[in-house]
């Protein structure tokens, strides 16, 4: 373990991440305790997750994502946008990119502070009572709620995430409410963080798909979703239960560079 680690901090709609350039493979990705400590908001840098940018043949870079608990995680949409911004700031890419993540190949277009990130196609939709269960790179449980601003997301989310169905593998729990004519408000309890976060990109994507399913909408659709940390836009082509050309658009903002 090297004594000093250089890192950058980025946030996407309030979902914050530690970014490390690991093209020299100097960072020990097996050291869960170190990653957990770096993500700790009292004893470390503080973040919802940590990402390594690594070199890989045939792609601009590889994204390796870790949850705040130190374990390697599934796909993170807001993290994906942040690592694209980080790659641009390292001069690896300019206005577009193709990179590899744990759930496969992703493309992204950069438009100033906004990054439009391609997400995986979704064919499989499950139900759990009234709720929808969709994997958009990470598994999500999505349900509609009234008076969402007043909801105790920590306790309600914790109970669903730790019930008999989901306790072993874990699941992200999303609550959505219609806002105005076209918009929606989303709050998410994230596994791995084990708390509510300010935004969840794969969750917003799953929520948008749930809205399109519940409202029986088909064709080319864009759904604006407000999260605690900002505004996201999800677009896709929907045909029945099939979602293709899925894109998650939103901000990815540099916060600071540091050494720890």
Explain this structure.
By secondary structure, the protein is α+β, with helices and mostly antiparallel strands. It folds into 2 domains: 6-118 and 253-259, Roll (Diaminopimelate Epimerase, Chain A, domain 1), CATH 3.10.310.10; 125-248, Diaminopimelate Epimerase, Chain A, domain 1 (Roll). Helix content is 17%, strand content 44%. It contains 4 helices and 17 strands. The protein has helices spanning 32-39, 77-89, 153-161, 201-214; strands at 6-12, 15-21, 49-54, 62-67, 96-101, 104-111, 114-118, 125-128, 131-135, 139-144, 172-179, 183-190, 195-197, 219-227, 230-239, 242-251, 253-259. The strands form 2 sheets. Strands 5, 6, 7, 8, 9, 10, 11, 12, 13, 14, 15 and 16 form a 12-stranded mixed sheet that branches. It has a 5-stranded mixed sheet with strand order 4-3-2-1-17, sandwiched between helices. The protein is globular. The chain starts with 5 loop residues before the first strand and ends with a strand. The model has no long low-confidence stretch (mean pLDDT 95).
Briefly, what is this?
With 260 residues, the protein is of the alpha+beta class. The chain has two domains: 6-118 and 253-259, Diaminopimelate Epimerase, Chain A, domain 1 (Roll); 125-248, Diaminopimelate Epimerase, Chain A, domain 1. The protein has helices spanning 32-39, 77-89, 153-161, 201-214; strands at 6-12, 15-21, 49-54, 62-67, 96-101, 104-111, 114-118, 125-128, 131-135, 139-144, 172-179, 183-190, 195-197, 219-227, 230-239, 242-251, 253-259.
